[in-house]
Amino acid sequence: MSTAALPALKIRPLAFADNADIARVIRDVSAEFGLTADKGYTVADPNLDALYQLYSLPGHAYWVVEQDGRVVGGGGVAPLSGADADICELQKMYFLPAARGQGMAKQLALHALEFARQQGFQRCYLETTAFLTRAIALYQQLGFEHIDGPLGNTGHVDCEVRMLKAL
């Protein structure tokens, strides 16, 4: 049995026209994993349908992963709200099943961390939930370490896994 090659994935900066597509990806993946708005996950973010506008601010950046002209994932970085100015947050890393297992999350995270360094951030924080074991394994591989308490004001009350990395 032959296997056809998967369509190529590419990372590119978020464009205004991507707002609805990346919001759909985040909602679909959130539903897949039971990450509901009532628990403070990203689907409760009031900026979810306007990510381009949010990530166009200084010190912010977001990239989408595209496959055959379709947005299948994304992730970004921004200053951590309510924290020291030298801390950024890795944010909204979501990938549809078609984009998983191909190294794109790692590539995107590395790209985001390099952007953060260039912006002068010295540490990067993230929050996730314990049942996203593949994501946690990736973050550990990238040098993030588990910390006890939350940093900043993320609003993600049910994200019990908190990690920090020196840049």
UniProtKB/TrEMBL annotation:
All copies of domain N-acetyltransferase, residue ranges: 9-167
Keyword Transferase: yes
Keyword Transferase among record annotations: yes
Record keywords: Transferase
Organism: Shimwellia blattae (strain ATCC 29907 / DSM 4481 / JCM 1650 / NBRC 105725 / CDC 9005-74)
Protein name according to UniProt: Putative acetyltransferase YjgM
Superkingdom of this protein's organism: Bacteria
Gene3D superfamilies membership: 3.40.630.30
Pfam families (alphabetical): Acetyltransf_1
PROSITE patterns membership: GNAT
Gene label: yjgM
GO molecular function, one term: N-acetyltransferase activity
